[in-house]
Design a protein that fits this description.
The relative contact order is 0.11. 56% of the residues lie in helices and 0% in strands. By secondary structure, the protein is mostly helical. Helix 1 packs antiparallel against helix 2. It has two domains: 30 residues, no CATH class; 52 residues, no CATH class. It contains four helices and no strands.
């Protein structure tokens, strides 16, 4: 979802199609959001400065022993700001 927002906003249908092809043809495993993950995500959000979607992504990745987590957060995943 997140990678499609800017191309959709900009009307860049070619980039939307490229992202969809990459995501659907990769070895990426999609994990549904579940109630089981939401409390740990809330705990992570309470103890860091992560926003809700990032906390859900991180907890979901941890729940399936994810080997790679790609982010566009220049500060780092668990960076806390004063």
């Amino acid at each position: 979802m997140e990678v499609l927002v800017v191309p959709l906003r900009n009307g860049n249908t070619s980039l939307v199609a490229d992202y969809e092809e990459l995501l659907l043809s990769s070895q990426m495993h999609l994990v549904p959001i579940s109630q089981f993950l939401l409390k740990p995500a809330a705990n992570l959000r309470a103890t860091t400065h992560l926003k809700t979607p990032d906390a859900i992504h991180a907890v979901t990745a941890l729940s399936v022993s994810c080997h790679q987590f790609i982010t566009n957060d220049k500060a780092g995943l668990f960076h806390s700001t004063p």
